[in-house]
Design a protein that fits this description.
The protein is 51% helix and 15% strand. It has nine helices and twelve strands. The longest helix is centred in the last third of the chain and has 90 residues.
């Protein structure tokens, strides 16, 4: 579009600079400066093509944005709130932080208007990720670059998010300390890649420790399989995911809290803030927002690109229309100034011709009448002449 604008600005100036003034001043018809119509038409065609290209691109970007919105993260985001807390920043130890998280979930679940509460160590759809190579029982080792997304989840997280459990079960408080390696819940893609053709329930997985290979033995039991969902953002395709029990961890830092409400989530924001202040005023609430807004934030880049493409496409189309109008107007003016002198002279020539022809016909008629009368007089005079001769 920039090249077209420069061409439209420079070429007319160059053509005007090359125009001879004398023939222009002698032009009594007042015709505009004659230029190359072919060049103008080519420039207009190029501008129209570029504007169509921008419009098509804008349409594709808008379609992509609409598809991402319609697809969503794979679970319902309405009536869902999220926020983060980090008791360790207030000086809480790991044990005290773990106790805080347990009490927090219980307190929020008992609040009026709240249906369920879940905790996650990695914030969802915010670009964050925890990745590590994983070994699976009875499967060949995966390449080091194949690292699934990992997370630590509390009991009730999948219910709160609305992620259906396809096989097995969710985490429970009774699972703590039952298995030395803990429990894990995986998604469908993880099961297909690491346990192809097998039922993963009851099998084991483990994190690969490259510094101590002996510690890489799979010892975490798979207790459930959940539906595939988006993890880091909506743009990325679905990837293998594994969730470990949050309460069986050894280090507790920041945590993301997800709250499913029965009422309008916007009306619950102030209530949740007040409840958290009463629960522990030393731990601040960070990024309390509706999950729908978080989904919109994750698409801000696509929205910006689609908006800019639509604006530039509209401007390019407007410029193309103006250029096309200018070329057509220029062509019409040229044709008008070349045709109108002929049109103006033609009626005067026709009228005078008709009058001249009329006069000639009248004269011919008069002459014919005179000749006829003379002949008739001669005819009448012939008998007398003969009589006299006789």
């Amino acid at each position: 579009m920039l090249m077209t604008a420069v061409a439209f600005g420079l070429l007319p100036a160059m053509q005007s600079a090359r125009t001879e003034i004398a023939p222009t001043l002698k032009d009594t018809g007042g015709a505009v400066i004659r230029g190359s119509m072919l060049a103008r038409k080519l420039l207009v065609c190029k501008q129209v093509a570029l504007s169509l290209q921008l419009l098509v691109g804008a349409g594709l970007f808008v379609g992509t944005l609409r598809n991402l919105r319609n697809e969503g993260p794979g679970y319902p985001t309405n009536h869902l709130l999220s926020f983060s807390v980090d008791p360790s920043l207030s000086g809480y130890s790991d044990e005290r932080t773990r106790f805080f998280d347990e009490q927090l979930r219980t307190m929020l679940a008992s609040t009026s208007g709240i249906e369920s509460v879940g905790l996650s160590s990695v914030p969802l759809l915010q670009g964050s990720a925890w990745q590590n190579a994983v070994s699976a029982e009875g499967s060949e080792p995966k390449p080091i670059q194949d690292q699934p997304f990992l997370d630590q989840a509390s009991p009730g997280l999948f219910t709160t998010l609305g992620i259906p459990i396809l096989a097995g079960r969710d985490f429970t408080l009774q699972d703590i300390g039952v298995n030395g390696g803990g429990q894990a819940v995986i998604n469908e893609m993880f099961a297909r890649e690491y346990f192809p053709g097998r039922n993963p329930i009851g099998l084991h997985i483990g994190l690969v420790d490259f510094e101590s290979p002996t510690r890489s033995k799979p010892n975490t039991e798979v207790i459930g399989v959940v539906k595939d969902t988006k993890f880091r953002d909506l743009r990325e395709p679905t990837s293998p995911q594994a969730y470990f029990s949050y309460l069986e961890g050894s280090h507790f830092r920041g945590i993301s809290v997800y709250v499913r409400t029965r009422l309008d989530p916007r009306g619950m924001i102030d209530q949740i803030r007040e409840r958290m202040r009463q629960f522990d005023p030393n731990v601040p609430v960070v990024d309390l927002q509706i999950m729908d807004d978080q989904v919109g934030t994750s698409l801000r880049t696509e929205r910006l690109v689609a908006s800019l493409s639509a604006v530039f496409g509209g401007l390019a189309t407007l410029l193309a229309v103006i250029g096309l109008y200018g070329v057509m107007a220029y062509s019409v003016v040229r044709r008008y100034q070349n045709i109108m002198p002929i049109v103006r002279r033609k009626p005067r020539f026709t009228t005078s011709g008709i009058r001249c022809a009329g006069r000639i016909s009248a004269c011919e008629g008069a002459c014919s009448c005179r000749v006829g009368s003379t002949s008739l007089a001669s005819f009448r005079m012939e008998p007398s002449v003969a009589f006299q001769h006789g």
